[in-house]
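for the writeup, i need someone to sanity check this before i put it in the appendix. the sequnce is what the collaborator sent (i think, or maybe the updated version? ugh). structure was predicted straight from it, no edits. if anything looks off just tell me and ill rerun, i have time this weekend
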Amino acid sequence: MTYDVTLDRSASASQAGAAVRTARRVRVVRHTTAVLALALLGACASKESGYGVGPQAERAAEIQQAGRDPAPDAPDVYLDLIRRMQSEGLYYASLAHIDAFEKQYGVKSDTILMRADALRMTDQPQAAADAYTKLLQTPLASRGYRGLGLIAGAAGDFTQATQQLLEAARLAPTDALTLSDLGYARLCEGDVNGARVPLMKAAELDRSNPKIISNVALYLLADGDNKRASALMDQQKFAPDVRAAIRRDAAKVAAAERAQQSVAQAQQDARIAPVASAQAPGPAPRLLQRFSQ
């Protein structure tokens, strides 16, 4: 009986020792695996830095992978994916995904807007204008008018651009980009005075947008305030090529302003001429002079 108990105890001790040894081996294997994993990660990191893979390339790879992945099940997630594609400049890919979204979930105001923007950015102005026009009876009407204004401006029709952007600003009076676009269209039209208020509104609504600030600098140059324009560009640390582009645009605005003034003068002369020819010799009545003006 005593022998059996001793044997059982020896067996138990042997089993316990085996368990301890097994546990140690598992810990060693795990430690070795962890060390190898860290080494591999270090090698990958070294290779990545050696090949110069930067954040922009990583984002491009993520977007490219997103384009290959199946479409998300949730419509809001899918719309966010399409918006991200457009923010990365992948407008052609976004058009394909807009088609897929509308096939699965139907046409929505957001998809019409994104389609219109993509069509405009892929040089399809007529199709883009048709899409923007569909937005005019929706809650996104201001974006529709803004898009139509941008299309008109790209075609050089700044009068039409101003009209469309005025309506967009009326519907969305605190949209800084719309106000900036309106101010720029007026500058290109030669209406320097008319550009001041929308551009100053835009600058105070969004002080960090470089496009808005560059339009303000353009206005200051066109208005003859070279000192303030230079100070603003210095403050914003504009690159030399950006400054040169703004000054070239200022020269174009000055030419457009002179042309507009010439047209206005010609129209005024045309209105005055018939009255002057119809007057009898001698001084005209004072009231007639004021009325004709």
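The radius of gyration is 35 Å. The chain has a mean pLDDT of 79.
thx in advance!!
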